[in-house]
Amino acid sequence: MVVMADASSFFLISSPQHGFCSITSSDLGCTKYASSCGMHAKAHVATRTGVMDWRMPHSSIPTTFRKPLMMLNCKKKGLELVSDLGLGSFVKDGFVFRQNFYIRSFEIGPDRKVLVENLMNYLQETSINHFKAIGLFHDGMGSTPEMNKRSLIWAMTKLHIAVDHYPTWGDVIQIDTWTVTSGTYSMRCNWMFRDSKTDKILARASSIIMMMNKKTRRISKIPDEVQAELKQIYVDTQFIFEDDTRKWSKLDENTIDHVCNGIMSVPMTIMEKYELASMTLEYRRECRKEDVLQCHTYVLGKTNDGIVDCDHVHCQHLIQLEVGSGGGGGDGDEILKGRTKWRPKYEKC
Amino acid sequence: MVVMADASSFFLISSPQHGFCSITSSDLGCTKYASSCGMHAKAHVATRTGVMDWRMPHSSIPTTFRKPLMMLNCKKKGLELVSDLGLGSFVKDGFVFRQNFYIRSFEIGPDRKVLVENLMNYLQETSINHFKAIGLFHDGMGSTPEMNKRSLIWAMTKLHIAVDHYPTWGDVIQIDTWTVTSGTYSMRCNWMFRDSKTDKILARASSIIMMMNKKTRRISKIPDEVQAELKQIYVDTQFIFEDDTRKWSKLDENTIDHVCNGIMSVPMTIMEKYELASMTLEYRRECRKEDVLQCHTYVLGKTNDGIVDCDHVHCQHLIQLEVGSGGGGGDGDEILKGRTKWRPKYEKC
């Protein structure tokens, strides 16, 4: 589960539909977080704009990122193990954080390919280590000092991941992550997965994370003081990644609804012959311990259950509250809406 | 799930009750596996006997292990990444394999302590990397060339793990693993978990793995040719670890039976106030995809559900087949029997 906030509860919350925001750049200003790294600094960096095309080869990523000066000086504090244990390091003038992962025996499926949930785990881990290494976030879950003052935490509201090639057991993958501003309510995190040996792009991901009040559990505008803190980590760039702007398709009597109590509801016929090519998840509200969930998977454009051809398969997914634990959710409330695209596992399936 | 065999199916199989076997030592003989490492060798090593006390401080482990000569010469082949990415290395004259793990954000519970299932994942990973590093096992799941010839695979039949202290997110734990012979049917794998900074013992584990025919799915005696291959990896030592020899307690009308369809059946009152201190699992037969399982947890020695005191809690667990998928199992067949001991999370619970 990819959730970036305090570990005491999972929160999957309602998300306004967010598209891409235009990215503005401004001078780098240093605030109180500086003192927490044992120093004070103020810097002005020239504003430049770059375009990052996720489809470009690695060497072509423009290095027009603004440099977060703070983290370089914070490196010596408690991060000695970074290089030893592969906890990641900065590249591209310090604006991109890179971490390698060895695909372990317990992270794979029967075909020895990594399971997508483990790729999602890596996303979370890379971002958290990124934030830690910057030295700005001290609670371990990405909250800045100004956020802590206001009881604000991060909540992921949307995640889009596209996997071109699944790495297999024993492969080493290299994940680059960087953050861009995304308006007054949210921040965008991006990830690029590559095979560390061949440099081949394996997967791309992007998420919207929003600010939530820890007590009221409501979405909050990002306060100016927090925006000032975050400025230093934003990469001043646009990037091209086919965002999933599809609308939730209308369901009719031809749509097959696979229902189950639990998380798993993709039909076995799909799981066996297809692999997940891309997935977009929208977290619409929190669910809590002891909530009972119901999952629906709608296989689109099929008039019967015979998913035997070699076409891609498109699904829509809905997780809703069946029985709430009393935490405020009503029965039937939507927890998550998702869309998935599946491609045949083999050329001739 | 800790299963050491081919990834195409999980196998949890019936286990004769195994105690500790006396360990005999003999000369090191080299067989055909040597050629697979691109060389031939034959060595005679003096027989010595050591005693390994798991409660002893780290530096006191006697270095009386016989040296597996093969692996030292195989090291250059495909193991370049071992030191870079923390995939482990040999210590104690090459008889103990050591790997470090950084506790990641997605491996912890709400209290930021690692979940026991992740400790079990580390067991598997360390042992597999151990076997790989020796250069004897080429299929990735620990099958030797002589095992491959005979369609033999490994199956874990018993696992005992005791956790003194749970490491938390960001801790680095050091796992030592070594193998001892255990009669004509099985091999024993041992693991010791330490805090890499303080050297404090965190957990200990031991398992019995047996040989199974991949086609018939039946337990097999270890053939002499395989025993000859395995000799080089055995540590010539006894070790002291309080083995769990308790028998399955008789259940009476005072025993509370918590039943659920799924894997989770430990009552929430235990999960909230107690942490797992030790666990013994006996895998009694395989289960397969689409089998439907039923779990029972029996809380021992309690006449009501009010588990509120500060004593340790003892449970027995049974996973049985509710509906078989047609793979040979009958309804009600025992898949796994387990015993767990829980201690209060806080001194004053």
From TrEMBL, chains A, B:
Source organism superkingdom: Eukaryota
Name of the protein this chain belongs to: Uncharacterized protein
Taxonomic classification: Eukaryota, Viridiplantae, Streptophyta, Embryophyta, Tracheophyta
